[in-house]
Amino acid sequence: MTTTSEVQVAGREWLPAARRIVVKVGSSSLTTIRGGISEKALAALVDTLAERANMGTEIVLVSSGAIAAGLAPLGLARRPKDLATQQAAASVGQGLLMARYTQAFGAHGVTVSQVLLTADDLVRRTQYKNAHRALEKLLHLGVVPVVNENDTVATHEIRFGDNDRLAALVAHLVHADALVLLSDVDSVYTGPPSEGGTRIGHVRGPGDLDGVRIGSAGKAGVGTGGMATKVEAATIAASSGIPALVTSTSAASRALAGEDVGTWFSVSGRRKPVRLLWLEHLAAVRGTLTLDDGAVRAVADRHRSLLPAGVTAVSGDFEAGDPVEIADQSGHVLARGLVNFSADELPAMLGRSTRDLGREMGPEYERVVVHVDDLVLL
Fold first, then answer.
1. Which of 25, 175, 257, 268 has its CA 20 to 30 A from that of 85?
2. What distance in Å separates the CA atoms of residue 176 and residue 271, rounded to the nearest whole number?
C-alpha cells in the first residue's frame, strides 16, 4: 500500500478514488444506554469499511463509543457528568469496543489496532512525531487503526472535547484525502426537517451556513457532540485543505461510493500543521501576552517570532509549552502561540533583549518567547 496520498478529491464523486480516508463514527450510531454496543450497527459499518480496505484504500477509523459501551457493565443509566466516572466507563468500555472491532474486521481478513490519543500527542513535537510515525507504519502494513481520545487519562485541560474535532486533526496528521463524519443524521439541514428544514448538499465556505440552525447532541444521550461539532470539524478540515462529508452511518456505503448523500464541504483553504489547527480552533488558552506596537507589527505583519523585548505584560497561569493568547495594547487578540517560558519566568524578562537575558540569566534564556512555527494568526 502507499504511504502518501496523491489523489485530489475535488468532490464527493471522487471519494471512490481516494487513497486514504479518515472516517469518524459517533456513539449514537454504535451504542445505546440499555444495550451497550449494537452488534448489528457495528457489523454493518465494518462490512462497508472492510470492503473498502480490501480494495486498497487506507482507512483510519475514529470511533466514539468507549464511555457509552462501559455504561451498562457498570450499571449506569446515563452518561456520567463527572470526569472520574467518565474515565472509569471509558476504561471498561474501550476494551469491549475494540474486541468487537477486532472480531468484525477479522471476519473480513482485516487487522485493526487501537490508537488512543490526547491533545498533547498532536501538539507536543516529540509526541506528534511518534503518533505520525506509528499511524503511517500501521497503514503501510495494511492495518485499520481505530483511534479514540484517551478518555481514561485525559483531563479537561488536555481533552479534544469530542471525537469530531479529533477526527479533523487526525485527518491532517495522516495527510488524508478526505474526512467522512458519520452519525445518526443523514445531512446538514437549514433547520429541523420536522419544521420544514431542507438538506444542504454542498458547503463551499462558512458563508453558506449563515442563518442555519445547527442541532446539538442527539436523542440517544450517549454522545457529546451533535451536528454542531460535526459542522465545526468539517469546517476546520475544509478550511485547511481537506474536504469533508457529513452524513449518516446507514449511508456510509453510498457515501464512499461517491453517491449524492450527505453534506459535502469543499476545500476552502490551504493545509496547515496540525498543532496550528489545534491552536486556532481547540486550544484551552492558559494566559495572555500583551505586546507593544513594534512587536504587534513584527508578529502580525511580518510573521516573526515573538521576542521578550516586545512583551509589555503577562497574565494567567501557564507553564512552558502551554497555549497563550497574544494581544495588542488595547486587548485585541491577534494570535495564539505555544509559549517557551512559564508565567513565573516571564515578568523578569519583559522589554529586554535575548542577548542581555542570556548574559545575565544563562543561555537557556536566549530563546524567543513564542517561535513563529508555534504561532497562528487569528
1. 25
2. 11
Calpha distance 5→115 (Å, rounded):
21
Would you say residue 248 has pLDDT above 90?
Answer: yes
Rounded Cα gap, residues 90 and 83, in angstroms? 10
Q: Which three cell numbers stand for residue 6?
A: 496523491
Model confidence pLDDT, tens digit, residues 181-196: 998 889 999 888 888 8
* pLDDT above 90: percentage of residues in the chain: 56
Q: How far apart are the first and last CA of the chain?
A: 38
- C-alpha distances out from residue 231 to 168, 250, 287, Å: 11, 19, 28
Spell out where 137-197 has E strands.
Answer: 144-149, 178-183, 188-189
pLDDT tens sequence across 249-295: 999 999 999 999 999 999 988 888 777 887 887 777 899 999 999 99
How many Å apart are CA 291 and CA 309, to the nearest integer? 9
Strand ranges for the chain from DSSP E: 20-25, 31-32, 36-37, 58-63, 112-117, 144-149, 178-183, 188-189, 199-200, 202-203, 244-248, 263-265, 287-291, 311-316, 323-327, 333-338, 375-377
Pairing relationship of beta strands 199-200 and 188-189 according to DSSP bridges: antiparallel
pTM of the model: 0.82
In our burial notation (b when 16+ CB lie closer than 10 A, e otherwise), range 81-93 reads eeeebbbbbbbbb
| Residue 204: how many other CB atoms lie within 10 Å | 12
Question: What pairs with residue 247 in β-bridges?
Answer: 182
The single-letter DSSP state of residue 73 is T
On the question of pLDDT at 223 being above 50, the answer is no
Residue 103 to residues 40, 111, 147, Cα–Cα distance (Å)? 13, 9, 17
Could you tell me how far CA 313 lies from the centroid of its own chain? 32
DSSP H or E segment with residue 48: helix 39-54
| Strand partners of residue 244 | 179, 265
